[in-house]
Every structure is written in structure tokens, then in C-alpha cells.
Design goal:
The structure is a homodimer of 324-residue chains. Chain A has a two-stranded antiparallel ribbon with strand order 1-2. Chain A is built from 16 helices and two strands. The longest helix of chain A has 28 residues, at 188-215. Chain A is mainly α and 324 residues long. Chain A is 75% helix and 1% strand. The A-B interface holds A 21, 23-24, 26-27, 74, 78, 81-82, 101-102, 104-105, 107-109, 111-113, 115-116, 119, 126-127, 130-131, 133-135, 137-138, 141-142, 144-146, 148-149 and B 21, 23-24, 26-27, 74, 78, 81-82, 101-102, 104-105, 107-109, 111-113, 115-116, 119, 126-127, 130-131, 133-134, 137-138, 141-142, 144-146, 148-149.
Chain lengths: 324, 324
């Protein structure tokens, strides 16, 4: 059984060697640029891990791992247009380096190229794999739309938020594991359980993102602490604080959100003070750990020798203790 | 064997009843809006026709017909963003009726939904069909990119142009026919010949688009004559005129193109006068008929009773004589 690092290395080697095309260069250039930006490769590695856990081999599952990573990257290119983001991994985003039309079109091409990779699978389960892939990729779009809708909606609550991050983040992670399990030959029940593991892992992962933005260690986080607070982003933390506050406390929070002239650091400090009073840190940690626990319980329930699940436990532990 | 009209009617019924999803409504609303705008449904009808010609039944091929039409519509939504088009079929485009972010995301979803439809095919040829679908849809993106590139390139010649319209327009039409043939059980050779038929039909179709814009009958064309001329669009007509003119004639043409203050109707009249002197009308007709002839020759070459090809001949004749 391979470790996370082994699989990551093997995957990156395959991705670098994978031929997506080259002409016209204004279309394929951005695809190569995006795919070579790096990243944790969490989704494809989880897919390969699941395939291996059920007795499949990683070479066999590689086309699906490539597909899931290429699709994931297509969403980054299009999300960056929608978010007007200038940088990704400290490099200019595609719509900045080229232009918006090229970013739209090369993102489209990456969606198509993910299916091209998928069709290289040598498996009797092609239609089942496609079925999962089609479902989860459509859900990612649904999650992104909900996220866009939330920007102009002041009635969003924690339950709406959890539903949004489930679609936007968790299902692709969970579906990657399910596809790996199918290719590895898992039973339907086990494929569902491993999906469930991934779903809760994804929710915990996203909650941790929110958590680190406010309570991370500035030396290890890699970004400025409080970015979400400055942007009034409707994170778990803010929504929980709004849920818990009534009367003057709530007025204090919303007036900080509406104050456009306040110094950024002052705003961060004051919001963190409110979070402290409401014990938001502890509540967010509880929510996170609840989902990690559910993830572990689902994984435990999978009908496999515990030794075969070792790498999956290991990656979950790694995610719990991450600081960036 | 069904006629074009029968298949169009049957296809529209299936498309109207097809469930793509509904929530969130800002995502699925634009999908329903786009798919119900209408249109000739040329690609899915050709697909069904090819399936029937080779002995398949239309019900069996329907998921692929839906896939090709849904994909085609995704490109319209994204192209309209790139072209800054306000109207399509006299209705506001998606990015005008909603906004650009929603148009990007709903276009993405339509690509994914085209694969979802495709995966409903009950065929041992799923992987072959996917392979054609993946190839032609990527080529459509390549064609669109070349079209974008051409806007800022004054060195484009007729050969570049034919390559661009082949990718942007012909391959989807040709691939629709190839997929229909595969589902119907055609041999590899016949599937290639029917592809070749579609490729030349598509080229002739696009050349006719260019032709009608300049030389169509204003009473039957449905749009203002000369739109391409006003926009300096690099059509077959303009590129042929530029190819044929040297010295003062060329200067006259390029100065008309660069003249931003000239009255539109005056510009159209003067460019048409140049086209007349260069016999562009006759040359474009020749080019168009050359591709129609090649299309017919490929179709004739398909190893089927001529009676089974009747509907395909009929649709080609219809396209030759169209006036809008």
C-alpha cells in the first residue's frame, strides 16, 4: 500500500507526461499553465488510495485520477473569473495572464479533457464511473451557484451554508473516493460508505479552512489572518456569530461589516473579540471534529481489513492537524 | 424511415420532457431558457437519421441526440459572452438576462449534462461514442479559439479560414452523423464516410451563411443584409476579395474597412461593388457547390441501399436551397 507522498509523486509524474494537446496555443497554453501550478492533488490521491484499498492497482485507476484533477482545475479557472481573483498560488490567474474569453474557453476544454481521460479507463465499470462523475461535477456547479447566490442574500443560515460547502467542496472529494472504490472492485455498500467518509472529511476540511482564516497561526498559515473577515465572507464563523447574537451584539457585528472606512486590522481585531465572547472558536472546533468523527466512523464501517485502510486514516489525521 | 420534420418533432418532444434538474434556479433556469429557445435541431436530427439509416431505432439513439444538442447549446451560451451578443433568436442572451457569472456556470453545467444524457445510452459502443464526442467537442473549442485569434490577425488566409470553420462548425455536425452511425451499427468505414459527408455539408453550410449575408434576399434572409461587411468579419467573401486584390483595389477595400465614420449602407454598397468586380459571388457559389458535391460523393460511397439514404439526401438538398 502506497503512502500519500508516494501516490502524490506518482500522480504528478503521470500528469506531467499526460498529453492534452497543443494547438491553438492560446487555448492549450492556459491548460498546461493551470495543470502545472501544483497543489496538494488531494482528490486524485484519495481516488488512487481507495482503488488500492479495495485491491485495484493505481495504474489501472490513473485515468480517473487524471480526470478528477483536470475537472477540479477547470473549476478553479472559471471560479477565478467569477471571483475576479488576480492570483492563484502566487501566479496570475488565467483571465489575468491571457483574458476572460480565453479563460472561459480553456476551462470548457478542461471539462472535456477530463472526460477524455476518463474514457481511457479499462474497466467494465465505465458507465458506473461516468454516472458518479456526472453527478458530482454537476453538484460542484450547484454549490458554486449557491455560493454566488449567498453574496446577495442576508438570510443565509448555517444549514444553507453546510449544504453549499457539501456541494462545492465535499462531493468531489467524496466522489473521487467512490470512483476509486468502484474501480478497485468494492461492493455498492462499501462504495457508499467510502463516499460518506469523503463527504464528512470534505465538510471538516472546509470548516477548517474557515477556522484557520481566523484562528490560524500567522507563521504557518501562509496567508494573512482575517482575509474572510475583511471580505465579510459568509463563513461558518460569521454565520454562527450572527445566529448567536441578538440586539446590541448583533448591531455591533453588522455595523462592523457595513463600515467601509474602518482600518482592516482594527476590523479584524474587533470581530475576533466578538468571536471570543461568543466562543466561536470552540464551536467551530466542535463542528469540525464532529465531521472528522463521522468520517472515521464511516471508514471504520467499510468491510476491509483495517490494514488496508491505513493510508486513508493517515491522510485524515494529516488534514486534521494541518495549519495551512 | 422518418423525414426531417418527423425527427425534429420527435426530438423536440423528448427534449421538452427531458429532466436536467431545477435547483438552484439561478443555475437551472438559464439551462431551460436556452434549451427552449428553439432552433433547427439540425445536429440531433442528423444523428437520428444516421442511426436509422444503418438500421438502428431513433429511441435507442435519442440520449446521444440530446447530448449533442445540449452541448451545442452550451457553446452558444459561452460564445454569446465572448461575442458580447445581446440577443439570440430575438431573446436576451443568458449573460444579459442573468449575468456573466451565471452564464459561465450554466454553460459549464450544460457540458456536464450532455455527458449525463450520453451515459443513458444502452449500447455496447458507449466508449466509442464517448471517444467521438470527446474529440469533436474539443475541436469545437479549438475552432472558437482560432476564431478569437483571427480577430487580431491580419494575415489570415482562406486556408486558415476553412480550417477554422471546419473545427467550429463542421466537426460537430459530422460527429453527430458518425455517432448516429455507430449506434446504428455501421462499419468503421461507413462511419468514416458519413463523417466525411457531414464535414463537407458543414463547410458548405457555413460558406452559405457567409454568402447569404452579402447576397441573400432581404425579404427571406430574416436579418439585415451586410451585417458581416459592417463588422469587418473575416468571412470567405472578404478573405477571397483580399486574396484577389493588389495595389489600389486592395487599398480601396482596406480603407473602407478602416473607415469608422462612413454610413453603414454606403459601406455595404461599396464593398458589394468591389465583390461584384471580383466575381466573389460566383467564386463563393463555386466553393459552396464543391463542398456539397464532395458531401454527396461521400454519402453515395456509403455501403447502404440508396433508399436508406433518402432522408440524408433530402436534408442536404434542403440546406442547399435555404434562404436564411
Amino acid at each position: 500500500m502506497n503512502t500519500f507522498e508516494n501516490l502524490q509523486l506518482g500522480f504528478n509524474k503521470e500528469l506531467n507526461a499526460y498529453h492534452v494537446g497543443s494547438h491553438p496555443k492560446n487555448l492549450y497554453g492556459p491548460v498546461h499553465y493551470t495543470l502545472s501550478m501544483g497543489g496538494k492533488r488531494l482528490r486524485p490521491v484519495l481516488l488512487l488510495m481507495a482503488a488500492e484499498a479495495f485491491g485495484g492497482n493505481t495504474e489501472h485507476a490513473m485515468p480517473a485520477a487524471l480526470a478528477i484533477e483536470i475537472f477540479h482545475n477547470s473549476t478553479l479557472v472559471h471560479d477565478d473569473i467569477m471571483d475576479k481573483a488576480d492570483l492563484r498560488r502566487n501566479q496570475p490567474t488565467v483571465h489575468r495572464e491571457w483574458n476572460t474569453n480565453i479563460a472561459i474557453l480553456s476551462g470548457d476544454l478542461m471539462i472535456l479533457k477530463s472526460y477524455e481521460a476518463l474514457n481511457k479507463l479499462d474497466t467494465p465499470h465505465l458507465s458506473s464511473v461516468l454516472s458518479v462523475f456526472n453527478r458530482i461535477t454537476a453538484q460542484v456547479c450547484e454549490g458554486q451557484q449557491l455560493d454566488l447566490d449567498f453574496e446577495n442574500n442576508n438570510e443565509v443560515n448555517i444549514s444553507d451554508y453546510m449544504d453549499m460547502i457539501r456541494l462545492k467542496t465535499s462531493v468531489l472529494l467524496a466522489g473521487a473516493l467512490e470512483i476509486g472504490a468502484i474501480i478497485g472492485g468494492a461492493s455498492k455498500e462499501d462504495a457508499k460508505k467510502i463516499y460518506c467518509f469523503g463527504e464528512h472529511l470534505g465538510l471538516a476540511f472546509q470548516l477548517q479552512d474557515d477556522f484557520l482564516d481566523a484562528f490560524g497561526n500567522k507563521n504557518t498559515f501562509g496567508k494573512k489572518i482575517g482575509g474572510d473577515i475583511v471580505a465579510n465572507k459568509k463563513t461558518y464563523l460569521l454565520l454562527k456569530a450572527l445566529e448567536l447574537t441578538q440586539g446590541p451584539y448583533r448591531d455591533q457585528l453588522t455595523s462592523l461589516m457595513n463600515n467601509k472606512s474602518i482600518d482592516e486590522n482594527e476590523k479584524i481585531a474587533q470581530v475576533l473579540q466578538i468571536y471570543k465572547g461568543l466562543k466561536i472558536k470552540e464551536l467551530a472546533e466542535d463542528a469540525m471534529l464532529k465531521h472528522y468523527d463521522k468520517a472515521f466512523a464511516s471508514l471504520k464501517d467499510v468491510q476491509l481489513d483495517e490494514i488496508r485502510k491505513h493510508a486513508l486514516y493517515q491522510v485524515s489525521e494529516k488534514l486534521i492537524h494541518r495549519e495551512s
